[in-house]
Amino acid sequence: MRVLFATSEAYPLIKTGGLADVSGALPNAINHLKQFTGDIKILIPGYSAVLAKLKSVHAVAKIDVLGQACTLISGMMPDSGLAVIAIQNSELYERAGGPYSDENGMDWQDNALRFGVLSRVASLLCSDNSPLPNWLPDLIQCNDWQTGLAPAYMKLVDHSTTKSILSIHNLAFQGCFDANWLKALELPAEHFQINGFEYFKQISFLKAGLFYADKLSTVSPTYAQEIQSKQFGFGLEGLLKTRQDDLTGILNGIDTHEWNPASDVHLEKHYSNSRITGKKAVKHALQQQLGLQIDANAPLLGVVSRLTYQKGLDLLPDIIPKLVKQGCQFAILGSGDKVLEAHFNALAELYPEHVSMNTGYHEHLSHNIMAGSDIFIMPSRFEPCGLNQLYGLAYGTPPIVSLTGGLADSVQDTNEMSLKNNTATGFVVKNVNNASLLVTIERAIKIWQNKKTWRQIQKNGMQRDISWDSSASTYLALYKKTLQIN
Ligand code: ADP
Fold this sequence. Notes:
binds adenosine-5'-diphosphate, 2 domains, six-stranded parallel sheet, nine-stranded mixed sheet, Rossmann fold, alpha/beta
C-alpha cells in the first residue's frame, strides 16, 4: 500500500499547532505497524525551516504548477527518517513569518495560491502525469483546508484512481477565498456551485475536500458527531450530515518519544508513574524560572494554548484574583488575542509571585509547564481532539476540561463513582462560563490537597495508553476500508 500524507505542517519540521503534532507522529506510527506492509511519504511545502531540517535532500523533479516553477525535493524526517517530498518554490514558501501569516500575524495575501499549489501537486502525484511515475499512491490522506483542493483536482482534473481521505483537524478554519482565484487555481468553473467547491460565493478549500474526498475522518468520535450539528458545523453541517456514512472519528494519540516525563529532553529531572518524586523538582524549577513564589504547597495551574475564542481562556482573567487570594499560582504560555494577552500580562504585573505570562511560541517552556504544573486548564468551547489534555494525562497533571469533542472522549471527571473504580483522570467544567470554571478549579484544588486521592487520579491518567499505536491501527483499518481491501 502506497500512501501520500499531504499536510501543511509536521513536527519537527514546522509547527503552529496540533496538526503538526499529528502529521509528525501518525505517518510514522502507521509505518511501524506490523500489519502495514507499505510505504508512506509526507508531502509538505518547502518552507525555509523544512528545507533546513530535512535530512538527505535531493531534487527529484522540476514541474510547473499553477504557473509556478516548483522543484520537488526528496528528503527524510530528521528524527524518524520517514520519507518526505517538499515543494520548493522560494517565492511562495521561503518567507520570514509563519506558514500562514506574516510576522504581524496577517494572513499571506496569496494563501489561495500557496495552498492551491500544495493541493495541485498532491493531485498530480496521484495521476497518470505524475512527476514521480514510479511511485503512484494507492491512497492519499489530506489534512484540513490547506490540502482540501487535492480531492477536487483528483476528481475533476486528473481523473485519478487513487482513493482519498480528507481529515478534519479543525472545522473552524475553512480556507475560503474570493471567486477571482478560480482562474489562477485552474479550477473548472462549472463546479463553482453548491454541489461543488463553492461556499456562499467563495471558493472553499475545506468544502472541496469534504465534497470530493472518498472518505472523511476527524480527530475524535464526539467531534465527528458534533460537526453534523448547527452549533459546531460552521455552516458545513448539512454537507457533513449527507456524508455521515463516510465520516469516522479517530482520537489522536501522543508522540511518546517527544512527550514522556521519563525521558523528556526539555526537563532537568525525569519522573514516571512509578517514580513520581521528580515532578516536585520540575515544579520547583518552573516556579524559580518564572519568578513565582517557590512553594510546593501552592497549587500551580498551567495553560499552554493559542489564545482564541475556541479555547475559552477569556474566562480565566476574571477569576484569577479570587484564586490568587486562595494561594493559587498560574503559569501561562499563550499567544493570539492581543486583548487577552494584555489581560494576562496585567495580572502577571499585579501578582508577580502568583501569575506568570509568556507570549510567543516556546516548545521548551511548554514541556516544563506541562510537567511542573499540578493541574492543566483547557475549558475549550469546542475542541476537535486537543493534545494538551492528553499530555496532561501522561505527565500526571490532571486536566480541567469542558465536555466537548476530544476532551469529552479522553478525560473522565472525578466523582464518587470514578474515584471508586479508578477511572477518574481529570475534572469537567459543566458550563463554559466563569462561575462554572471557578467552581471546578476550586473542586480540583480541594482534591489536590488530599495527596492520596490525587496520586490515584494521576496514576489513572498516567497508566492509560494514549500512544499513537492504537489510533494508527484504526487509521490503517480506515485506509483498508477506503481501498476496499481486507
Ligand atoms: P490546537 O491545534 O487547536 O492549537 P492542540 O491542543 O490540538 O490545539 O495542540 C496544540 C499544540 O501546540 C500542543 O502541542 C501545544 O503544546 C502547542 N502549543 C500551543 N501554543 C503554544 C505555545 N505558545 N508555545 C509552545 N507550544 C504551544
